Amino acid sequence: MILDGKVKQFGLLFVLFGAFGNVVGNHQIVGTDPVFAEPIPNTTVTAGRNVSLPCIVDNLQNYRVAWIHTNKYTLLTLQNRVITRSSRYKVSHSSHRTWWLHISNVQERDRGEYMCQINTIPMMTQTGYLEVVVPPYLNEELTSSDMDVREGSDVSLRCMAKGSPEPEVTWRREDGQEISVGKSKVTSLKGSFLNITKVSRLHMGAYLCIASNGVAPALSKRILLGVSFTPMIWIPNQLVGAPVATDILLQCNLESHPRSVTYWIREGGIMVLTNLKYKTEVQPTVLYKVQLKLYIYNLEPEDYGSYTCVAKNSLGETEGTIRLYEIPPPTSNVNEKGDDIFNSKSEKLRNGHQKNSYKKHEEKDYSPHDPADQNSKFQPREEFSQILKSKGEHATSMCSATFQIQSLSSMMSLVLIYLYWKNISNIS
């Protein structure tokens, strides 16, 4: 009833604009009323785009056409003129038959029923509905941003999306891993809130809040969740062996957030610095894990001992120790009894260190002017080879002499047998 009253008010206003006297005269003369040729189609448009609504009238004669937004009780256009103050509305016609209402940059408030009216008596009207859909958008004030929380605390991530129709919100992890919620794990979770109790470092990562309502484009926001905890170091190999004059890599695995300050120290608290002898390296693996690496080049006896990797952040510090010890080189000499001989350059191993299970060999004092010493790390090996060679030559000569004696003995036996048979023959 209220709407009818408002429409009647618009009809009265329409009469004032439409020179009612002339219209009545035309109606009496012609005797034929205008006719709506087609209904106004219901139209759906995305906010921000343009739309045109048609009103098709046959036999309009001298009557006038008006467009009205019935939900707002607003007269928009009258014949060729735009009545509303909004510059987004325009009107046009095609041979006074099709009357177009043009709305540019459609807003959500433009949704509603639109009436095409002809100022006949009684008035002729028809309506069409304009549906305005809105892609999802976020209420930034109520939506979570990147955050850091302490391990073991509770956390709630919020994603407040709006749009028309009402958007549906889905949570996923950016890395594709499952989301741990209580005792269960899920690949995705629906709802505006993502609640995690007793958060751990395993929850750390980027979470995607995806809002969709069937209107393109869908919305996605990335929220980075950081979980703070004291550093933790674990060492794959706490005992590492390597021969003298080789290169070695020592490694510690570190977990920490926020990021830790790291360094290496030797026995006695001496900090290891990168130079020609040492090289330190920090290699990230995942979000809160890194590998601490220490390269030691051209090992010398004094390089053996303990090395400690240290990590510190705002919540605490930790360390891990690796012991580097000497082992035999990959190849060794063999004496005449078949025993291995290890020629160590380390005083620890030469003096009976428990790690050395190899027999000792007296080293020869090679001077720096000896040409052979310039190209060999273990010169006693060459000396031992010479000993084996001389022993081999001696053994060969002994075998030759034995063979000669055996041959001479055989010949003498043959001569004695010949003389014996000859004497027997003479006696007979």
From TrEMBL:
Listed Basic and acidic residues bias regions: 336-350, 359-372
Domain of life the protein comes from: Eukaryota
One Pfam family it belongs to: ig
Region called Disordered, residue ranges: 326-380
Protein name: Ig-like domain-containing protein
Ig-like domain span: 34-119, 136-220, 231-323
Keywords, sorted A to Z: Cell membrane, Disulfide bond, Glycoprotein, Immunoglobulin domain, Membrane, Repeat, Signal
Chain segments annotated as transmembrane: none
Cellular compartments per GO CC: neuron projection; plasma membrane
PROSITE patterns: IG_LIKE
Subcellular location: Cell membrane
Chief location bin: membrane
